[in-house]
Design brief:
The complex is a heterodimer of chains A (428) and B (303). By secondary structure, chain A is an alpha+beta fold. Chain A has eight helices and 23 strands. The two termini of chain A are 31 Å apart. Chain B is α/β, with parallel strands linked by helices and 303 residues long. Chain B folds into two domains: 193 residues, HUPs (Rossmann fold); 81 residues, no CATH class. In chain B, strand 7 and strand 8 form a beta hairpin. Chain B starts with 7 loop residues before the first helix and ends with a helix. Classes of the chains: A alpha+beta (428), B alpha/beta (303). Chain B: This is Sulfate adenylyltransferase subunit 2. Chain B: Its EC number is 2.7.7.4.
């Protein structure tokens, strides 16, 4: 059985929470006592409010909105699903970015009465920016437009125009009613004109979580040194393989030091193995006694990332305190933590159009392109090539808060000596 | 070169090991909160996979309510000895005396709310900066919104509106003095996942998880509560002997038993696939107090 992580995105009243509630309810993933608690609060017309299955905090129930990213789980005989429910309000873009960072697929919800709106564009582009390549366009509330095929077709066409314009992969469009249950888990009897699959059947049949083909990458999390009489000299570098495959005997380079050695042993759960792949947690032992510590990257000599102290990145700014150029921060590149500065804000991205706007600061929820300098070299890849080694967060040195999500866009030193490139249309 | 296919349990395991190693890499004085329940037992197995042949970079810490099942305490001591890891036990009893707390009253006096006091005491005593726990997001609606690295203030309080965004698998454990982080490596596991992992790894559990004969009080809700000296029974209470098992092993005064003949892990998985009642709903008497029961307790420093 495999795993699929997906995110649901839509505007405030598109019925996201109801859709998730419907998926859980119709796939019999809701237990009796949870249902009983729901029924206690049921609406006066006797229907159960499925949105209450995901709205967990008191303020959310009081205001009838979703404040924070919620995670829900269900399992069918085919696979395990992890749902990330990201709120729809404009001011919560940071939650959408957070949810999309771990998702394999995005369900973009549209209200059939409203069609493709600004928020639809915004959510789609953010999901694409974060590396999601599979989209489902869920045209919800079909019951409120009389299950009219023309309405659905128009919305599907409008959305296809959007994905074409930005060179995004085509979405699978499904007409549904989360409230009535049409085409969510069971096929609709109201829309005989629709011959495609229902939502759950589609989610069960797309490829699950899988590793994108990428060069081998591994970062050291922790050094295991038992220093016991039996193992006086054992030094194991513990970490998770971020991408690709490692083999015993590989010639490797430790970055940023540049020291070269060979993989003497590769261990998974204390067993020596010939090879291991992402996302396995492993221990690597090296033939030579080289200096390696947490935050270092071990890569095959033949497949090196860029080791750099300067990079260009897209940031999603997540702090109420704006970013001013020159600000000093900490940059956490997975297990590597270094001091960093943002000397230049190149431009701000309009997330409705992906046009570039001149900016000298970044406010909460802004997406900006910046140049970053770090105190020590980082071993990075471009985000579009490698989600693991192309991503980082920025941390406020004093409060410790996460203030930005960062995607590496360019990391070679030649780039920084060249003049700033003219803005390009978003492409992937 | 073909990419190997990984089962969903392989992925959950790799994620949990990664989280445990991040704790080891980022914190000075972490601890693993060990209750003797199946979730914390699974955590010790994951810690073995993360840190052997080295020792765990943290002690096991048990907050003993004094209402624990004796089988669970015996299991705890045996496991700590087998692992060769340090076990720290602190008793709610002592906190009650020291802080002159009021013992819970009522017919089924739960010390669950008082655990928080002892937990905060032990955090202060050992200056723990990170506490690893076996909580899962599928247990309860408020938990579904909590981060894997959950920052708490010096009173252990959780502020759902001030949570840090948690992106990719990058965990930010930077805290200020006095704050600490609760870490939940199996956040993304469900009860069924935990049992399937126990089966796959052949993990031994305390006997009370399996069907056994036990004398119980029948509650007005129909739930069964194992008889113990801590209950304050009335004369007309109905006492029965049934074949039961426990789905969770919290405080014995507020952890109900479910009728079951399940003798093996496989039987329990079959039970679960048929079960129509969620884990906390079936067995915990204290979460139902109000709809926001868990949210309130977490805000106050509970796990």
């Amino acid at each position: 059985m495999d795993l699929l992580r997906f995110i649901t995105c839509g505007s405030v009243d598109d019925g996201k929470s109801t859709l998730i509630g419907r998926l859980l309810y119709d796939s019999e993933s809701v237990s009796l006592d949870v249902l009983a608690a729901l029924e206690k609060r049921q609406a006066s017309n006797g229907t159960v409010d499925l949105a209450l299955l995901t709205d967990g905090l008191r303020a959310e129930r009081e205001q009838g909105i979703t404040i924070d990213v919620a995670y829900k789980y269900f399992t069918t005989p085919r696979r395990k699903f992890i749902i990330t429910d990201a709120p729809g309000h404009v001011q919560y873009t940071r939650n959408m970015v957070t949810g999309a960072s771990n998702a394999d697929l995005a369900i973009v919800l549209v209200d059939a009465r409203q069609g493709v709106i600004e928020q639809t564009r915004r959510h789609t582009l953010i999901a694409a920016l974060l590396g999601i390549r599979r989209f489902v366009l869920a045209v919800n509330k079909m019951d409120l437009v009389g299950y009219d095929q023309a309405v659905f077709d128009q919305i599907a066409t409008d959305y296809a125009d959007l994905t074409n314009h930005f060179h995004l992969p085509a979405a699978v469009a499904i007409p549904l009613s989360a409230l009535q249950g049409d085409n969510v888990v069971t096929p609709s009897t109201h829309m005989p004109w629709y011959t495609g699959t229902n939502l759950l059947a589609h989610l069960e049949s797309v490829p699950g979580s899988e590793e994108k083909a990428a060069d081998p990458r591994f970062q050291v999390q922790y050094v295991i040194r038992p220093q016991t009489p039996e193992l006086p000299d054992y030094r194991g570098y513990a970490g998770q393989i971020q991408s690709g495959q490692y083999r015993r005997g590989d010639r490797i380079l430790v970055l940023p030091s540049g020291l070269e050695s060979e993989i003497e042993a590769l261990e998974v759960n204390q067993q020596e193995v010939e090879s291991a792949s992402a996302p396995q947690a492993v221990v690597i032992r090296l033939r030579d006694d080289v200096d390696v510590s947490r935050g270092d990257t071990i890569v095959p000599v033949a497949h090196q990332p860029t080791s750099t102290r300067e990079l260009e990145a897209t940031l999603c700014w997540m702090s109420e305190q704006p970013l001013a150029p020159g600000r000093k921060l900490l940059l956490q590149h997975h297990t590597a933590l270094v001091k960093a500065a943002v000397p230049t804000i190149l431009y701000k991205v309009n997330v409705q159009t992906f046009e570039h706007i001149a900016a000298d600061t970044a406010q909460l929820n802004d997406i900006v392109r910046v140049r970053i300098k770090t105190a020590l070299a980082l071993a990075v890849d471009n985000y579009q090539d490698n989600r693991a080694t192309g991503s980082f967060i920025l941390v406020d040195e004093v409060s410790g808060d996460t203030v930005a999500a960062g995607l590496v866009e360019a990391a070679n030193s030649e780039y920084f000596t060249a003049p700033i490139a003219p803005p390009v249309v978003f492409s992937i | 070169m073909s990419t190997p296919q990984f089962d969903y349990l392989d992925r959950l395991e790799a994620e949990a090991i990664h989280i445990l190693r991040e704790v080891a890499g980022q914190f000075e004085r972490p601890a693993l909160l060990f209750s003797g329940g199946k979730d914390s037992i699974v955590l010790t197995r994951l810690a073995e996979k993360a840190f052997r042949p080295g020792r765990f970079p943290f002690p096991l810490v048990h907050v003993d309510t004094g209402h624990n099942f004796p089988e669970v305490l015996a299991y705890r001591d045996e496991l700590a000895a087998r692992l060769g890891e340090k076990l720290i036990v602190r008793k709610v009893e002592d906190t009650i005396k020291r802080q002159r707390l009021r013992e819970p009253s009522g017919k089924f006096p739960s010390r669950n709310p008082l655990q928080t006091y002892t937990l905060l005491e032990v955090i202060e005593e050992f200056e723990f900066d990170a506490c690893i726990g076996g909580a899962r997001r599928d247990e309860e609606k408020a938990r579904a919104k909590e981060r894997i690295f959950s920052v708490r203030d010096e009173f252990g309080q959780w502020d759902p509106k001030r949570q840090r965004p948690e992106l990719w698998n990058v965990y930010n454990g930077r805290i200020q003095k006095g704050e600490n982080v609760r870490v939940f490596p199996i956040s993304n596991w469900t009860e069924l996942d935990v049992w399937r992992y126990i089966q796959r790894e052949n993990i031994q559990l305390p006997d009370i998880y399996f069907g056994h004969e036990r004398t119980c009080v029948v509650l007005p809700s129909g739930q069964l509560l194992g008889l113990s000296e801590h209950l304050r029974l009335d004369e007309d209470d109905e006492i029965v002997t049934r074949q039961v098992r426990f789905r969770t092993v919290g405080d014995s005064t507020c952890t109900a038993a479910v009728e079951s003949d399940a003798a093996t892990v496989e039987d329990i998985i079959q039970d679960l696939l048929l079960a129509k009642v969620s884990e906390r709903g079936a067995t915990r008497l204290d979460d139902n107090i109000s709809e926001a029961g868990m949210e309130d307790r977490k805000r106050n420093g509970y796990f």
